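User: Hi! Is it possible to get a structure for several chains at once, not just one? Here's what I have:
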Amino acid sequence: MTFRSTIFANARRSLARAALSLSAAFLASTPVFAQDVPEQAPERNWHLGIALGLGQRDNPLISGDTIDINYAIDLSWYGKRFFFDNGDFGYTLFTDDTLSLNLLGSISNERSFYHFLTGKQLRLNKESAGATPIVLPNADMAATLSATAPTAKELDDLNRDTALPTRRYAAYGGFELLHISPYGDVQAQVLSDISKVHNGQEVWLSWTKPWFFTQEQVSLTLGLQWQSAALLSYYYGVRPQESFSARPAYEASAGINRFVRVQARHSFNAHWQAVGMVEREYLSAAIRHSPIVNAAVIDSVFAGLYYQF
Amino acid sequence: MRRAARINKKLGYALLLCGSLGMNAGQAADVAGYTMNARPSICVSYHSEQPCTMATTVNWTAPQDSAVCLRNANDSETLHCWEAARGGSVALSYADTQDVTYQLVALDGTLLATCTIKVINRDVRTSRSRRRHVWSLL
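Assistant: Yes, the chains can be modeled jointly so their relative placement is included. Here is the combined structure:
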């Protein structure tokens, strides 16, 4: 276990303990909160919330561990025109009560958070590939090997570093359209790589139906995400120089991911909420067929206590 | 299979936590066995300048025959009265920009029970649901 992975493992254990302690303390005081009617928070343009709890997210990358999620952060700021919302920067070009058109910018790496959170260098499992590295001390010994000895190319394949090649973050820019109505909320984004990292594009379209109760809010979200061939080839492709027998070269086509998400929250008062989220994302064929991916869906689940500052 | 079992285990914990905390709808404490509620009790507004409008029904019950009146706590306007009843209901047309509390009062003005209609003002700009990063999934 590396130093970095030890740090991450310790941090996750600490967060899990903190979440459990917080949950236990809160359970003891629940009857008091249950009698309270939620106060109306005054309007403000910034929003910060932290959730501690238990959760997991599948890791679709080959030999990648499932990601434990023990915390979540909700940070946003909305000015008259400019806004920041959980990593997205925006400028509102037009808005009325139910429609908003925004310029949007964001930085993202399709793959990075999988090994960022697990603290693990992802690589192919050589045992699963049916071989272990072989190093021959000298040419004489090689010459004495039987006729079944690996060829030079096979040796090269077996000794190759199987670590997943790194990919850079890309800056995205584009437009976003929001629309709310009693029939649901629509969010549409058209984004392009403005950093020239992969020159790809993506389109996001989601519909969310929220239901409001006295102290609870439940929402269902259905969505699609189209990603161009350039984007998917960059993050899920395997270049010829990165390929070997267990990881063939791969160039992705464009694809559409689909997802469904259910979220629920129960307010105890103006600051404390119980929150829960379940999501399933169906990966596009272009991602599923990648040699570095071994999953068709990504399941995410989280439940915990949320404090709004 | 093992991955699905792990997810199900986590989900079980999550549901247990939510269940333990309780999902009761908050209702103001009533006195002397009087109860009152409004259904629906949430008005969702999509227009910041216009009053939120909806039809709602206020129901009440009493432990014995009572002469009571229903009034709007915000302006003390009497909306409906009953001479001698153990319960009643009245349909109201709600139109306001903020929360309204209804009160059930005795003829001498004693407050017996309350219920509140809550207004939720939706803001289109903060309706963004996409979460690009795993640490901001809510």
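Chain A has a mean pLDDT of 80. The radius of gyration of chain A is 24 Å.

User: Great, thank you!
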